[in-house]
Specification:
Elements (H helix, E strand, L loop, with lengths): L1 E2 L3 E2 L7 E2 L2 E2 L17 H14 L6 H6 L13
Antiparallel strand pairs: 1-4, 2-3
Length: 77
């Protein structure tokens, strides 16, 4: 996992913005998961699901979308 320089968020200065990159490394003989799936794509989908999911406590706040809703990603916090 790598990330670039953190910069101040223009909307809410309490938060910082950055780009996070993931390198998924897997042995060639471990790629095939059957049913036309390959392991690196499955791992990328799992990471994407974690980063895009909401915790149960934040679902109501997400619907309101207030600036002080305190919405957090379930994986990165």
């Amino acid at each position: 996992m790598t990330y670039d320089n953190f910069t101040s968020n223009a909307v809410d200065p309490k938060f910082m913005d950055c780009t996070v990159n993931f390198d998924i490394i897997c042995y060639d003989d471990e790629w095939d998961l059957n049913n036309f799936q390959i392991r690196p794509i499955a791992i990328a989908g799992y990471i994407d699901g974690i980063l895009n999911s909401l915790t149960d406590n934040n679902k109501i706040a997400w619907q309101n979308r207030g600036t002080s809703s305190g919405i957090k990603l379930s994986g990165m916090g």
